[in-house]
Design a protein that fits this description.
Distance between the termini: 48 Å
Radius of gyration: 22 Å
Number of strands: 0
Structural class: mainly alpha
Helix content: 55-70%
Largest sheet: none
Oligomer: single chain
Shape: globular
């Protein structure tokens, strides 16, 4: 038995190295892809990150770079772009993306699944074309996903302090993991564990945020956090709310409020329904992220990593046939791809395709809700832990 587990781990390591090689090969081909593709392969956000890194390296604020909407920590992490290689950040994001698959493997092992099952679902992540493309184009979301998966693993291993530290760091880097707080609290086994989780999360998030504020002042809060509360995006946005917000402007502010209320209510209901045991925490977290993205007023392709990165860690508990899974995946991908054509015509050809984009966005929202409902209906919660304590022997009086 031990030899089989050891052999499986070695197999995981081989797949990990291949996954990393695949991503590094794409990073190496970026120059050629950017030169020959009509739409550059490198994400425009990566150029923003690199410019912000140049500013902090020269002792200036990263927010001198227009559209930089992240904490300074990310800009500092990419300073080696300047003196090592311009693709350093893409390599860093690729390593983080591969680490997500390794954490999926560890989560499934901690959840009691066999080594072969854990290895197969880790490999599914490593071969996921969405994650491969997004990290090699230069999206930083793999870093946050890595922290979230590590926090889930810490919680699974009954280490609430470490889980809080990792989750607080993830929230500082990207705000969305805050929606997982309900789940982590619900999965804690005692009030002491909840206290340790909250305290550790407050320390990590508070210290990083306080240092950033000391150095960069109010502009850090404005661009990293406050900006997202009123953000609108009329061109790169899958959300069906983008068009009403675009047409009505400030008059449609109530739509953003309604969206926020729906998100909070649904995420809280997920925590109550699914996060009662640590073994079900990955699924509850997947649902929370999927709901947050689907009902958000701004939805971009990189947001999909937020919930897709957690999906393999709970997928073995879905009681759904392979055919059904392929059909659901195909529906989700096709509705996403059909959205891209009118979006391309608007962005690069200057055609007025707003109405068509809005209709496809509505269809994509319906598909997201439908797929999530199907997965929730097919999810089989983790069985309760076996009672390993022996009953006390009864005293027989003579």
């Amino acid at each position: 038995m031990l030899e089989a587990v050891r052999s499986s781990i070695q197999g995981v390591e081989r797949h990990l190295l291949r996954a990393l090689a695949l991503r590094l090969a794409l990073v190496a081909l970026t120059g050629a892809l950017d030169a020959h593709l009509p739409v550059k392969y490198t994400d425009v956000d990566y150029l923003v990150f690199s410019d912000a890194a140049a500013h902090v390296a020269d002792g200036r604020s990263p927010y001198l770079r227009h559209t930089y909407r992240y904490p300074p920590l990310l800009a500092w992490m990419l300073v080696p772009n300047l003196w090592l290689h311009p693709a350093f950040g893409k390599v860093l994001f690729s390593v983080a993306d591969v680490t997500v698959g390794l954490l999926v493997n560890r989560l499934l092992l901690a959840g009691g699944f066999e080594a072969a099952t854990a290895a197969s679902f880790a490999q599914a992540w490593w071969l996921n074309p969405v994650s491969v493309v997004i990290c090699t184009r230069g999206s930083a979301d793999a870093l946050t996903a890595c922290l979230v998966l590590a926090a889930l693993l810490a919680a699974q291993r009954s280490r609430p302090g470490l889980a809080g530290l990792l989750l607080g760091t993830a929230v500082h880097l990207r705000l969305y993991p805050v929606v997982l707080g309900f789940n982590f609290l619900a999965a804690c086994s005692s009030n002491l564990a909840r206290f340790r989780l909250i305290l550790a999360g407050a320390v990590s998030f508070g210290s990083l945020t306080w240092i950033s504020w000391l150095v960069y002042g109010h502009e850090f809060l404005e661009h990293s956090y406050l900006y997202h509360l009123d953000r609108r995006d009329a061109r790169h946005n899958f959300s069906p709310l983008f068009y009403p917000l675009y047409l009505l402007g400030a008059k449609a502010a109530w739509l953003g409020t309604l969206s926020l209320v729906l998100q909070a209510a649904l995420i809280l209901s997920v925590a109550v329904a699914f996060a009662k045991r640590k073994a079900d925490l990955p699924f509850a977290s997947f649902c929370a992220c999927a709901i947050f993205v689907a009902y958000n007023k701004v939805v971009t392709a990189q947001y999909f990593i937020w919930f897709l990165s957690i999906l393999p860690a709970c997928a073995p508990r879905f009681r759904v046939s392979s055919t059904r899974a392929l059909v659901l995946s195909a529906i989700w991908l096709v509705t996403q791809l059909t959205w891209l054509l009118p979006a391309y015509l608007l962005e690069f050809q200057g055609l007025n395709t707003f109405m068509l984009i809005w209709l496809y966005s509505l269809a994509f929202f319906v598909v997201n809700v439908f797929v999530l409902a199907e997965l929730a209906a097919s999810y089989q919660p983790a069985p309760p832990p076996h009672n390993t304590t022996r009953p006390k022997p009864r005293t027989v009086r003579r």
